[in-house]
Every structure is written in structure tokens, then in C-alpha cells.
Specification:
Radius of gyration: 21 Å
Shape: globular
Number of strands: 7
Strand content: 5-15%
CATH topology of the largest domain: Rossmann fold
Number of helices: 16
Distance between the termini: 45 Å
Largest sheet: 7 strands, mixed
CATH class of the largest domain: Alpha Beta
Strand order of the largest sheet: 3-2-1-4-5-7-6
Number of domains: 2
Helix content: 25-40%
Order of helices and strands: HEHEHHEHEHHHHHHHEHEHEHH
């Protein structure tokens, strides 16, 4: 990335493979300052990190569960001269990672939720139906792959996963078709799965590919993305200093709904009314900075089509204690990966 109209200064370490979505808005809400310590919980190609490091004296802890992203960060880590540490881990562990790096509290956390451009563009990772490759979809190297889930999940579980996580209204038909095909031969490639879905889901010209929602659902399920997001939000609440900022960029309604519900619940101040008993609530742990989510303008979308669906929400940490976990209330009711793989 180079200096330009997006508000970023050039940072040592070479060009970034992609431009971070809503990067200028994320930096604005992070309120980056000299001497601050920040967590880039979805490091990827380091786009947000470069923007933070452009402010003198800042330090960044980058986290990514993808070992390839961590390996590719070596040049930027060296160029940052001790101001950047990149750790292979899940962003749900970001508070523990920060403490392992010697920081009991930080000034900001930024999360870009979902699959990265680097992962989508690599056919061998199996994230995209546009290139044929193994049906993998794992962001890290651990756990069952998408092919394992497709081979093992019951028709009912497949339909629920595709409906709830992909918002695919033809989920039952897709699940039925998958079960029928897998009885005859394994479904092991992205093209094979996309072809199966394409025979059930029809699309008109200029609409999204028929397999889009099914692939999204499987990717989210394989990586437990919604569970990771909720746990990461709670971890950010624990590690942020009073006045510290949380910025989250999400790309579909499931993620955005979780972030919105979490922040609204943490900033709630209403009690009871004359028609209802007084409700005892914990003191607000966040002040919401974005009453409505920020979105990309036409110029950014033209430069970076991935920004079209992005929504940014931000909040500032108060001095109140962190709230008790309410993860179960924020997540759809689905079987666990262990339940799906049981017996396989």
C-alpha cells in the first residue's frame, strides 16, 4: 500500500497484497496515538497494521490463525523495528495473546471478520467456487475440512447449517442433493460441490453465483466464525483500557447482527418503567461511536469490490467491569463440529 487518498501513509515493509476495507474509517475510530498499543486481530496481509504503524511510537500485536499469513509477515515485522509482533493464534484468544506479549491492557482492537482476499485467491485453500481446488476452507491447519463436514453431516444438519449460516432458502434441496451424490462418490473438490448446488439453486444474470450462500455457510461452520467472533468481542472487552477503542468490520448480516447486539447490550443504560419492575443492569462497558454502521462510498467500492457489503461498527471502552458472558444468546442454534463428526 502506498500513500494516497485513503489517508494512509506509506509504511516500510513493502506493498500490501490488498487494501484493507474501510481502512481510513477504521483508523479514525481507533483514534491511533503516539505510544499506543493496538491489536490487529485479523492480521491477514497487514493492511490495518501498516496504517497503525504509520503513527510514530505505536506498537501492534498482529494475530492470525493462518500460518501462511504469519509467515508472510516476516518482512514487515523486521521493518517495524520492534514495534510489531505477529502471533499465530485465533483472535478469540486476543486478550491472552496480549498478556503473553507483556500487555495487560491495550488502546485499541480492530477486527476484519471473515475470509481474507489471500485465502479466496488461493485455489488450494478451497474457499472459492470460482477456482477448482480441494474442498478445504480451513483458515488454520486444524480440525475437519469442508469435505469432512459434507461427507459426515446428516441431511437435516446440512440443511440447517446452509439455511442459518448461508441464509439459503433452498437449503433443504441443496442438502438432499449433497446426500444423494455422496452416497455414490465422495464430494472432494470445490467444483464438484458448486455443480451440485448449481443444479438446485438457479440464478439470473447479474445475480450472485448459485453456490455463494452454501460455500459461505460451510466456511463459517468449519471455522466456527460466529463463535470466534463472540468470544473475540468478549476478549476485547476484557483487554481494552478505559478510553480504548474497538472497531469491527463485518461482511454479512449474521456477523453485523452479532456485533450490533453485543455493543448495544454493553452500552445499555435503560432500567425499568412504571409498567414494569426496575431492571438491574451492569454499568455500561462500552459507549457506541457508530449509531449506524459506516459503509464504503462508491469510490472505495470501485477500487475494492469486496467493500460493497462491509459494515463498520465502533465503540469506546468505559471504566466499568466487563460483563458476564452471554455468548449463547448471540449465536444461532446449530450442532457443534464434534457432534457432526461423531462416529467418523
Amino acid at each position: 500500500m502506498t500513500a494516497g487518498g485513503d489517508g494512509f501513509a506509506a509504511v516500510a515493509g513493502g506493498p500490501a497484497p490488498h487494501i484493507p476495507v474501510l481502512g481510513a474509517a477504521a483508523l479514525k475510530h481507533l483514534n491511533v496515538r503516539d505510544g499506543g498499543v493496538y491489536i490487529d486481530g485479523t492480521f491477514g496481509a497487514g493492511g490495518y497494521t501498516r496504517g497503525i504503524l504509520a503513527t510514530a511510537g505505536t506498537k501492534v500485536i498482529g494475530i492470525d490463525r493462518d500460518p501462511r499469513a504469519v509467515a508472510m509477515s516476516a518482512d514487515l515485522v523486521m521493518a517495524a523495528n520492534g514495534r510489531l509482533t505477529v502471533i499465530e493464534d485465533r483472535f478469540s484468544n486476543l486478550d491472552d495473546v496480549a498478556r503473553r506479549c507483556g500487555h495487560d491492557a491495550v488502546d485499541g482492537v480492530v477486527l476484519d471478520v471473515g475470509v481474507s482476499s489471500m485465502q479466496l485467491d488461493n485455489a488450494e485453500r478451497g474457499f472459492s467456487f470460482r477456482q477448482d481446488g480441494p474442498l478445504d476452507m480451513r483458515m488454520g491447519n486444524d480440525g475437519p475440512s469442508a469435505a469432512d463436514i459434507v461427507a459426515s453431516a446428516s441431511e437435516r444438519d446440512l440443511a440447517n447449517i446452509i439455511f442459518l449460516l448461508g441464509e439459503e432458502r433452498h437449503s433443504r434441496g441443496v442438502a438432499r442433493a449433497i446426500v444423494k451424490v455422496r452416497a455414490e462418490k465422495p464430494i472432494e473438490t470445490t467444483r464438484a460441490l458448486a455443480d451440485i448446488v448449481g443444479r438446485v439453486v438457479r440464478s439470473k444474470p447479474n445475480e450472485i453465483h448459485p453456490a455463494t450462500r452454501t460455500f459461505q455457510a460451510l466456511r463459517i461452520f468449519v471455522n466456527d466464525e460466529l463463535g470466534e467472533l463472540v468470544t473475540a468481542l468478549e476478549a476485547a472487552e476484557r483487554i481494552l483500557k478505559p478510553g480504548g477503542r474497538l472497531v469491527v468490520v463485518s461482511f454479512h448480516s449474521l456477523e453485523d447482527r452479532i456485533v450490533k447486539t453485543f455493543l448495544n447490550g454493553r452500552s445499555e443504560t435503560r432500567g425499568g418503567s412504571r409498567h414494569a419492575p426496575e431492571i438491574v443492569r451492569p454499568a455500561p462497558s462500552f459507549t457506541v461511536l457508530t449509531k449506524r454502521p459506516e459503509t464504503a462510498d462508491d469510490e472505495e467500492v470501485s477500487r475494492n469490490p469486496r467493500a460493497r457489503s462491509a459494515k463498520l461498527r465502533a465503540a469506546e471502552r468505559t471504566a466499568a467491569p466487563a460483563h458476564l458472558s452471554d455468548a449463547a444468546d448471540l449465536l444461532p442454534h446449530l450442532p457443534s463440529i464434534d457432534d457432526v463428526m461423531k462416529g467418523h
